[in-house]
Amino acid sequence: MASTEYIQIAPFTRLLTHFRFLLTVQSEQGRSHSLILFRLSEPATPDSPNARPGQLYAMESTCPHLGADLSHAEIEECETGVVAVCPWHRYDFDLRTGKSETGLKACTYNIEVRTDPSDGVDNVWVEAPEGGKSWRVVELRPVSEEFADPPPRPLVKPESEAASVTEGEPIIPTENAPTTLMQWAVLILNTPNPTLKPSLFTTHSPALTPGTFPPQVERTKHAVNLFHTGQLATIGNTPPHNPPQPPTIPARDDAYTQNTVDPRKLTKRKNAAVMLHALANIEQWAIDLAWDIMARFGPSNPSLPPAFFFDFTKMALDESKHFSLLVSRLSGISPSTPYGTLPVHTSLWDSALSTSSSLLGRLAIIHLVHEARGLDVNPGTIARFARAKDEESVKALEVIHQDEVTHVTTGHRWFTWLCEKEGKDAVKAFREEVRKGWRGEVRGPFNVEARAKAGMTKEFYEDLRGDLGAGEADLGKGIGGEKERLVSEEKNAGAGEAANVEVAYEKTG
Ligand code: FES
Ligand SMILES: [Fe+2]
Ligand SMILES: [Fe+2]
Q1: Could you tell me the distance, in angstroms and rounded to a whole number, from the CA of residue 63 to the centre of ligand 2?
Q2: Residue 67 CA, closest ligand 1 atom number
Q3: Pocket, ligand 1, Cβ cutoff 6 A
Q4: Which residues are within 8 A (CB) of 218 and not within 5 positions of it... i.e. 6 or more apart?
C-alpha cells in the first residue's frame, strides 16, 4: 500500500557502496515505517550503455506472515521475476509486486531515479507509505557489511585470539545454550564482562585480562545475528515457552563494581580519557537496557509484534558497537587507562528500576527522556573533541549520534503504538509518565531538529517537570539527583566547554 507522494532518499551514487539498506521514514504525524532497499547488480551492456548499475526495489522490512525481519532475506530469481525469501519460514515475495505463491502480499514501494535539473545529480525517490503526509528520511544505512560491494573478505581470527576466547567461558554456553531470544536476553544480562575482544585490550589493563570472557558484546553480536538471519526464529515470550526472569540489576564483574562511585564524587571530567570512559560506561548500561526491555516486558505484553524485538535487538547491537568504538578510542588515546580502570557510576540503572513495572514508563523515561537528552548534548561533546583535533573520536561520536536518533525513533514508535492500542493520546500520556517517573525539570537547551527527526515534537517535552520524589530532602539520589547536581555545577562552571563536559554525563546509550 502506498500513496502518490514520493520521498527523496539520497543521490544514487550513495547506494553504490552496498546492496541492501535499511531505510526508516517518518511522516509529519509521527508515523514511522522501516523499509529495506535492495539494489541488484545489473551492469551496463553495450546494448544498453545507459543502464543504471543496478535495479532498485523497496519493501516493508517486516514479513507479512509472522513479522520476521526481511533485511537478510535471500534473493532468488524465478520465472516470474525476482523474489525475496523470508528467513523464518521461507515464503517468497516478488520484489516488484510483493505477491507470494502463498497468497500473502508484502508491501512494496515504487522507486524512481530522477535527475535534478539544477545540478544533474541522479536522486533516488521512493513512493511514500499510506496514512501520512510529508514523509522524510530518519535513517538510511547499510544492512551490514555482509552486503558491501565488493563484499569484505571473511575475517580469519588469529589462532591465539580464537584460543583465548575458548579458554574463557564460550560465547554459546556449553550447557543450557539459549534456544529463544528471551533466553539470550537474560543470558546477556547475566554476563558480567563487557569486553569486545582480547586484541582491544593491552597488558596495561589490570581490570581486563584477555581470555577471561564471557563477553557481553560478543554475545550480543552473536544473538542479534542469529535473530536477524532467521537462525533463531523463536522469541519465546509467550506460552508454551516459559521465559526466564531478567535480573533486577545486570551482572558486573568485581573489576568494574569496585570502581563504582557516587556520581557526585566524580570530578576530573575535563580529561578526554575520563570522558570516553564515562561515555563507554553509559553505553554498557545501554546494552543492558535494550535487552532488559525485551526480557522484562516481552512476557507481560504478549501482543508485542516481532517488529518490537527487531527494533530493540538492533538497538542492543548499536549500543554494543558504541561501547566498542568508545573503548577502542579510549585505548587509542590513553593506553594506561583502559575500560574498567576509572570510576564509573550506576545512575542510569536507577531509571530502569523505577520503570520496571510499566512498559509505557520505561519507553518514556529511558528512551524519550534520557536518550532524547543525549541528542541535545552530543553536538557539544563532538565539538569538544573537534577542538582537541581528535578526528577519530569525532567520527566515532558522529556515528553514535546518528544511531541515537534512531533509538529515540524506536522509543517514539513503540510509545505511540502502545498509546494507540490503549486508546491514549501519546503527548498527554508521555507528559503524565514523565510527571510520575522523572525528578525535576526536563532540561534544555533542546536539539529541536534531531528530536523532531525522531518524532519528538515540542509539545512532548516543552515546559515539562516530573514530580518523582517531590518533597524528598535528599536530591542526591538517583539520576534525577545527578541532574540537579549538574545544573548547579554547570551554573558554577560558567564556561561553555566545562558545561559540555559535565552535561555529557547525562547522555544515555
Ligand atoms: S515466512 Fe516470514 S515470518 Fe513466516
Ligand atoms: Fe541508544
Ligand atoms: Fe549508544
Answers
A1: 25
A2: 3
A3: 63, 65-68, 86, 88-89, 91
A4: 165, 171, 195, 196, 197
Q: Which CATH number fits domain 2-145: 3.40.50.300, 2.102.10.10, 3.30.110.30, 3.30.930.10?
A: 2.102.10.10
- CA atoms of 297 and 488, how far apart (whole Å): 36
Between 130 and 206, whose confidence is greater?
A: 130
Q: Containing H/E element for 381?
A: helix 371-387
Which residues lie closer than 8 Å to 257 by C-beta, 6 or more apart? none
CA–CA separation, 382 and 279 (whole Å): 12
Left, alpha or beta for 384 (phi > 0: left; psi -120 to 50: alpha)? alpha
What residues form DSSP beta bridges with 115?
A: 122
Indicate the domain borders of the chain.
Answer: 2-145, 169-506
The whole-angstrom separation of Cα 110 and Cα 2 is: 8
Measured by CA distance, the residue closest to atom 1 of ligand 1 is 89
Atom of ligand 1 nearest to the CA of 91: 1
Q: Which 8-state DSSP code applies to residue 101?
A: T
CB 284 within 8 A of CB 194: yes
Cα–Cα–Cα angle for 305, 310, 315, rounded to 5 degrees: 130
For 2, phi then psi, to 5°, come to -150, 165
SS3 annotation, 412-469: HHHHHHHHHHCCCCHHHHHHHHHHHHCEEECCCCCCHHHHHHCCCCHHHHCCCEEECC
Mutational pocket test of ligand 1: of 88, 99, 228, the residue with most ligand atoms within 8 Å of the beta carbon: 88
Please confirm whether the linkage preceding 240 is cis (ω < 30° from 0).
yes
Report pLDDT for 168: 60
489: how many CB neighbours lie within 10 A of its CB?
16
- Express each pLDDT in 452-509 by its tens digit: 999 999 999 999 999 887 655 443 344 333 333 333 333 333 333 333 333 333 444 4
